[in-house]
Amino acid sequence: MKLFIFDLDGTLYLNNFASKEVINLIYYLQKKYLVIFFTNASGNSLIQVQERLLKLGFNCEIDHIYTSSYMTALYLRENNISDVFVIGTTNFLNEISSFGISIIQNSSAKNLVVGLDNKFTYSTLSIALHILLNNKDGKFICCNEDKNFPVNETISLPGCGAIVSAISACSDRKPDYVVGKPNTYTLQKIVEKYNISKDEIIVVGDSLESDIQMAKNFGCKFLLVNHKTIVQKVYKYERSLQ
């Protein structure tokens, strides 16, 4: 093995809590292997993700962080997709704009790009529908199709996939391309960058549908963890000592 790829939410931490054991494990692995952090979350920039990891106690370089938002921006540039209406956070829009991609936040846009947007409205849905119905050759690109994501020990919130499903339901059209997990687009970029083979990689994550399926699609090793249960136990134990 040469490269470990770790999912973030639900794997390394949960609700801004990372156990000391997990942090120490990452430090140990980084002494022997290359460790990559890859999240399907699309709401924050690479710098923001790095700041969160550092605050939690992890050691990480920004070049070793991959997000579905950053990779979506890269995919758009590589495929010359511009004039896009973007559904997502301000951070996501800024990420796309930094790649020189033209953003048109009204129904005159030719293409639709979808990330997680906790301010998603009926009006936004209507614009997305208009774009897809009036631009048959336009592209419908999304960061991921995650149904939900964990925020603490007992609560999950709707994910990007919930927004994508709403758009697909009213337009009768599925995304032309899903950039994030379980797509192997990011893994292919990592392999090319570090010049390693598939059998030298192991993906570690908590989701069968995204993390593990991505590894299977790519043909590399994987490890499924149930960090939610681990975090609950460690969190309760450390609280009992206070």
Structure notes:
With about 240 residues, the protein is of the alpha/beta class. About 40% of the residues lie in helices and about 15% in strands. It contains nine helices and eleven strands. The chain has helices at about 20-30, 45-55, 70-80, 90-95, 120-135, 160-170, 185-195, 210-220, 225-240, and strands at about 5, 35-40, 65, 85, 110-115, 140, 150, 155-160, 175-180, 200-205, 220-225. It has a five-stranded parallel sheet, sandwiched between helices. Strands 4-5-6-9 form a four-stranded parallel sheet. Helix 3 (about 70-80) runs parallel beside helix 4 and helix 5 packs across helix 6. The mean pLDDT is about 90.
Mind sketching the topology for me?
Blueprint: E1 3-6, H1 20-30, E2 34-39, H2 46-56, E3 65-67, H3 68-78, E4 84-87, H4 90-97, E5 111-114, H5 122-134, E6 140-142, E7 148-150, E8 156-158, H6 160-171, E9 177-178, H7 185-194, E10 201-205, H8 208-218, E11 221-224, H9 227-240
Parallel strand pairs: 1-2, 1-10, 2-3, 4-5, 5-6, 6-9, 10-11
Antiparallel strand pairs: 7-8
Helix pairs in contact: 3-4, 5-6
Compact description:
This protein has 9 helices and 11 strands. With 242 residues, the chain is α/β, with parallel strands linked by helices. A 5-stranded parallel sheet has the order 3-2-1-10-11, with helices on both faces.
